[in-house]
Amino acid sequence: VSNADYELDTTGLDNLIRNAPQGVDDVVNRLAYIALGIIQTSWSEPPSAPGNPPAIDTGALNASMRVAKQGHAHYIIADGVEYGFDLEMGRTNIAPRPFMNPAIEQVRPMVPDEIRRAIARWL
Amino acid sequence: MIPWDDASKAIRAHLSNQGVWGNRVHVTQAPVSSKRPYVQIFLAGGGAANIVKQKDASLLIAVKVIADSLSESLVGAGQISDLLDDNGEQEGGANPVTGVDFEISNISEGLTISYAEPVENARSVYHGGAQYRLRLEVR
Which residues contact B67 (CB under 8 A, 6 or more apart)? Predict the structure, then answer.
């Protein structure tokens, strides 16, 4: 029976543990701003058709769009006008013109690749 | 047919005369004259899924009842859930939501929709339902 010595190199793991917390926050921040960019370039030509993003009228909705940090790796995309929700979800006299959900749906498939790339950077 | 067209028609047919809304099931836009309660179906997002090497899609579809009372909107939302959630063609139900050109393989309920809309004379109209994730694959 022979003895064998094993050496475990934990450099990559240590880097991952050290970098992951801030890295995850960075990834979510980046994705939130990508979604915001999609929203702000998705407005319809006037007049907007029901089911499509609204058209720019006064520009107040577009100007009010923002990303806000809520906590670690937790960001929200919000509008600052009263009628934003009505446009997204509809009212009895306003057909829905979703502009938030379609952007989130576009960003959702990007998440695995963004995380994969980030982990490669952290190691 | 495109996935959204197929899916919306399938949901409309599946819900018609199956709940408090009767046959009043509207896609994207409800006529102003529509009597409440009625159902409104609209595309909240999504598109090609590109998971398999043929046409497929992952769609987020909002389905809600618009009613004059909170209780009716809640009953309607429950009926929609019973009719749609986990009732895709690959989910083993006896009466699945069935597409024409696309197989609607899975339907998963997501975020709840519930809000009151103030209307004239200090009254409110109630919107209740949910977002549903549909997975579709061309037949």
Answer: B20, B36, B37, B73, B76, B125, B126, B128
pTM for the structure as a whole: 0.92
A3 touches chain B (CB under 8 A): no
Give yes or no for a contact between B55 and B49, defined as CB atoms under 8 angstroms apart: no
Tell me what ipTM this predicted complex has: 0.92
Which residues, in sequence order, are bridge partners of residue B56? B137
Sign of CA dihedral B15, A99, A77, B66: negative
Q: Does any CB of chain B come closer than 8 Å to the CB of residue A90?
A: yes
Give the pairing type, strands A74-78 and B56-67: unpaired
Token output for A96: 């829905």
For the record, the structure tokens of A99 come out as 């502009």
Which structure tokens are listed for A38?
């999609």
Would you call B46 and A90 a contact, using CB atoms and an 8 Å cutoff?
no
For every one of its 139 residues, what pLDDT tens digit does chain B have, with 9 covering 90 and above? 899 999 999 999 999 999 999 999 999 999 989 999 999 999 999 999 998 999 999 999 999 999 999 999 999 999 999 999 999 999 999 999 999 999 999 999 999 999 999 999 999 999 999 999 999 999 9
